């Protein structure tokens, strides 16, 4: 180990190879502070060539590598296990925006760039980079791509996968694949790009990417709509897609109980609806023409939805401040949940058409098995992505309830599976769900994945134990 | 071989295993009639299970498999070589549309479904399946996905890759991967779907797919605009994206010489521009609101473009018939080219921002080496995809010119490479370009591709010799 660390120091400079416990602590604990791993060092190369050189040393000394960006992941994908054999390879020094090409609508960024900085650089070039999620102030684009991040704009712009045209990757052997293409069409072989995207650092290390930019919308409009049921939210979605098409950029579902929690813990955010409703939809339109046109589009949509009895009540934001306030309510659901106590969380996706049935059936199954639980359902309905979270019954203690996590996961995930859904919509697998997917994926699919992993990383040094168990 | 063919007959019925030369001929010749291969049989399974059973027999008897849909490919990807050892496995009997889910905006189709039939089924459910290309009357969705087809709607809706959510695939071992997911978000492992898409049947056989549907536009508007240069076309593209955003669904560039050829060979299509122009753009808007709104959008755009001096003249289609007529001109370019004589064709893509420079620089290089050649440039400018074709000089004979193909390819493809472009934008590699890509892809990229191929198809029985040489 000493020889390995000396070689690392020699390669990138001693100040970038840390074995200091205090300094390394933030790199070893996961974002939700549930797990702390250990590492033989935290290594911070400063360029793609240095990343490659470190990985070649890891090959030589058989040292596992845990690539890490902002370390904001939710499935223990970017922290090492507790063996202490691995290094954490932090990409944070690769933080340059290399080029912006407004005519090609692309930007070439290094993987350690923070998402928010990329959004701002795009704005500076009068363009939009639409990827947007809660942790955007600290997550990095490399992590976003490695976990195929979702967020709130997927309905219109797709996941991180759809926002990337090209990659630069350091392979498990320490070679550099120069795939930084800025092309909309390129049919010259296997889709290596999409293989690395979403692979959670188990097949190589993304060091840079060409990402897609879009024209900035001229106007954005937000409304909060009250509905009777999730099925009505689906009817509203179909209507909004038909009438607004690509102008529909946000469609978030929030159950009445979500709103109750937000009002309870953040009373200043109480909504001005006269009565409580079963479901709410936060709807966003982005318009390329004008404020006026955006208003007309939104008003026509809501008018139709009210007339058809799909929507019961509506709050339309009339200023940017009001619009932000509505989004703030949405963003405070997880915080209100946390204030209420610990939750058992599920990040699932379903075919959009069965979401109403899934919610009522799963609610029934969970309540039957665990009477009194409080179910907190919200999510990106336009993408079929629900955060289906469960809080302890009022009569139970938080901790005794959390002991039931495995049994509750079983009910929820089995239900997801029976509706042809996914048990990880946008958060990934990491170390947290790698056993859970074995229950739902066929042996054939698992073997295909293992075959690819073994072929590309025969020494199993790239983020071992994440996504698939060797 | 007899034992193998008997086993095939026993498995799927003797009438679906043909060794009849006349009957097999259309399966053995490529779409452009440049090459005829041989096969030990043409085999037509009737279900996914039968496809799997045939592939297991191919494993047992070490018989190569050439999967084939509509056999409309342009790079010799779907015809066998001349060894006579392979079977052609035709997917044409797997032609059922299994389900349509209008709320989820998905359709599950078998791979032998003809693209045009899928478009019509979507229309029947008041939805749009936007993939559209010249051969849509006979190409199949399995072939579209295996070659990641492009076409005329990529600018707005993406390539075939972006239009697919899930796949069912028979692996080279004859297992069935049931990946028919209809989910917008699913982060549960490696992206197998995108690995099979664009793999040209070398990693497995796509037997069914879940494809994305979209709301049908309410109005479509087409205009033909005359411009001074390709650079002005780029300025127009940026303006149109800014003003119309996702409503911009078509942006085709055609050089003045393309128009000359169409007028010469199809005089009834002569355009009513007062004078000849250097470049033309066929522009299409699709609107989700109304005819009126579409008109306003288009008129405002053209008005701005005229005022800014980007556009010199414009023809706006005022009826569906006129709109079709403009598209017909575009579609007749390849026919006019063929009527003029044989061409050396290139299907290339570039970063959109360098297209003007690429055209002038490549024109210069080609004309310097081959004085008098006529260059026919047209393509999907919005995707950076050019069909850069070269016709013989008037003073030369067609055939002596065609002898120069290798030298001309070298100039064009080297130029593409120097501008960071791709030598196959939408047609793929097949057997035609498998040596050519070796010149432009790094050894690291080729090795990654070979590693994946060897791992997933160790016997090399899936479409051997296509895309990569073993």
Automatic annotation (TrEMBL), chains A, B:
GO process annotations (BP): respiratory electron transport chain
Keyword Flavoprotein among record annotations: yes
Keyword Flavoprotein included in the entry's annotation: yes
Cofactor(s) named in the record: FAD
InterPro entries: FAD-bd_oxidored_4_C, FAD-bd_PCMH, FAD-bd_PCMH-like_sf, FAD-bd_PCMH_sub1, FAD-bd_PCMH_sub2, FAD-linked_Oxase-like_C, FAD-oxidored/transferase_4, Oxid_FAD_bind_N
Top-rank taxon: Bacteria
Every FAD-binding PCMH-type domain range: 35-216
SUPFAM superfamilies noted in UniProt: FAD-binding/transporter-associated domain-like, FAD-linked oxidases, C-terminal domain
GO molecular function: catalytic activity; FAD binding
Keywords: FAD, Flavoprotein
Family listed: Belongs to the FAD-binding oxidoreductase/transferase type 4 family.
PANTHER family on file: BLL6224 PROTEIN (PTHR43716:SF2), D-2-HYDROXYGLUTARATE DEHYDROGENASE, MITOCHONDRIAL (PTHR43716)
Protein name: D-lactate dehydrogenase (Cytochrome)
Organism: Herminiimonas fonticola
């Amino acid at each position: 180990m000493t020889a390995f660390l000396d070689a690392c120091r020699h390669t990138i400079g001693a100040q970038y190879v840390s074995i200091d416990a205090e300094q390394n602590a933030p790199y070893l604990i996961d974002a939700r502070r549930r797990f702390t791993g250990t590492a033989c060092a935290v290594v911070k190369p400063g360029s793609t060539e240095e990343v490659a050189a470190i990985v070649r040393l890891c090959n030589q000394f058989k040292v596992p590598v845990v690539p890490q960006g902002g370390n904001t992941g939710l499935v223990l994908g970017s922290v090492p296990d507790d063996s202490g054999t691995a290094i954490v390879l932090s990409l944070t020094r690769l933080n340059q925006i290399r080029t912006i090409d407004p005519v090609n609508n692309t930007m070439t960024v290094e993987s350690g760039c923070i998402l928010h900085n990329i959004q701002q650089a795009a704005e500076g070039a009068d363009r939009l980079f639409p990827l947007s999620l809660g942790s955007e102030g600290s997550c990095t684009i490399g992590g976003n791509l490695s976990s195929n991040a979702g967020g709130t704009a997927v309905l219109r712009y797709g996941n991180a996968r759809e926002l990337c045209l090209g990659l630069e990757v350091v392979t498990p052997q320490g070679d550099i694949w120069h795939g930084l293409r800025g092309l909309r069409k390129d049919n010259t072989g296997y889709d290596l790009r999409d293989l690395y995207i979403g692979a959670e650092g188990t097949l190589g290390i993304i060091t840079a990417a060409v990402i897609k930019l879009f024209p900035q919308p001229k106007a954005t409009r937000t409304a909060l709509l009250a509905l009777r049921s999730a099925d009505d939210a689906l009817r509203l979605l179909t209507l909004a897609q038909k009438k607004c098409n690509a102008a529909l950029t946000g469609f978030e579902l929030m159950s009445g109980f979500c709103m109750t929690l937000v009002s309870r813990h953040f009373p200043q955010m109480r909504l001005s609806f006269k009565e409580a409703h079963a479901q709410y939809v936060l709807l966003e339109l982005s318009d390329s023409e004008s404020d006026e046109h955006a208003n007309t589009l939104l008003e026509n949509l809501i008018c139709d939805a009210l007339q058809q009895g799909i929507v019961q009540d509506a709050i339309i934001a009339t200023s940017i401040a009001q619009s932000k306030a509505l989004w703030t309510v949405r963003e405070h659901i997880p915080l209100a949940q946390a204030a209420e106590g610990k939750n058992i969380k599920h990040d699932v996706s379903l075919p959009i058409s069965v979401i109403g049935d899934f919610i009522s059936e799963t609610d029934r199954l969970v309540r039957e098995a665990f009477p009194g639980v409080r179910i907190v359902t919200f999510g990106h309905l336009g993408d079929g992505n629900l955060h289906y979270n469960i809080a302890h019954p009022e009569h139970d203690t938080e901790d005794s309830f959390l002991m039931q996590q495995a049994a509750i996961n079983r009910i929820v995930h089995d239900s997801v599976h029976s509706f042809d859904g996914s048990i990880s919509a946008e958060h990934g697998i990491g170390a947290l769900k790698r056993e859970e997917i074995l229950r739902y994926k066929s042996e054939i699919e698992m073997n295909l994945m293992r075959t690819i992993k073994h072929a590309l990383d025969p020494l199993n040094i790239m983020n071992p134990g994440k996504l698939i168990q060797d």
